[in-house]
Design a protein that fits this description.
mainly alpha; Serine Threonine Protein Phosphatase 5, Tetratricopeptide repeat; 2 domains; 0% strand; disordered C terminus
């Protein structure tokens, strides 16, 4: 009996992305990477494929490749909040591109729909990494305030913001109160 050979991939780019997400959820990063790359092969400007491929590279600590994918996603959708946020975390984790990430996240949080706790938290961590404790504290304060509003964010997000606030307080030496003058 003759063998049937399929010369054309029957899946769409979106279907490859869905398959990649399924692999990623199972922790099979190499298979997820393959599917995202196949999606991009079919549709070079597939935003979600680039972001998800960046996420795989970030999870594998391949920061240069993660950054490249996030930047490609941002060429497709400039100033898109999720891709910008992920690019910022790449800068936080790699220590490279922090200043650019601060500018980009600043643009995101200046947008009315960008004033979200998770984005302000990311900006706070970036500013902390850039040794700007006052600005970092302001961003984390606002993130926590927004998060505490009724149902504004899940408990794990609030917990993460508080952990970052704790990290910031460890970086800033406590100032001793000024002694009262005796008259």
């Amino acid at each position: 009996m003759p063998k049937i050979i399929v010369l054309e991939d029957p899946l769409t780019a979106a279907e490859h992305v869905e398959l990649g997400v399924a692999y990623e959820r199972k922790g099979e990063l190499d298979l997820a990477k393959r599917e995202y790359e196949r999606a991009i092969g079919k549709e070079k400007s597939h935003f979600r494929a680039h972001v998800n491929l960046g996420n795989v590279f970030l999870a594998k600590k391949e920061y240069g490749q993660a950054r490249a994918e996030y930047l490609l996603a941002l060429e497709i959708r400039p100033k898109e909040a999720e891709a910008t946020n992920n690019l910022a975390w790449c800068a936080i984790m790699s220590g490279e591109g922090t200043e650019e990430a601060i500018v980009r996240m600043g643009d995101v949080v200046r947008e009315p729909d960008g004033r979200r706790p998770e984005f302000l938290d990311t900006l706070g961590v970036l500013l902390m990494k850039a040794n700007r404790p006052d600005a970092a504290g302001e961003a984390l304060d606002e993130a926590e305030t927004l998060c505490r509003k009724a149902g504004a964010c899940p408990d794990n997000v609030l917990r993460e913001i508080r952990e970052h606030r704790g990290d910031l307080s460890k970086r800033i030496p406590a100032t001793s109160p000024t002694p009262a003058l005796i008259k």
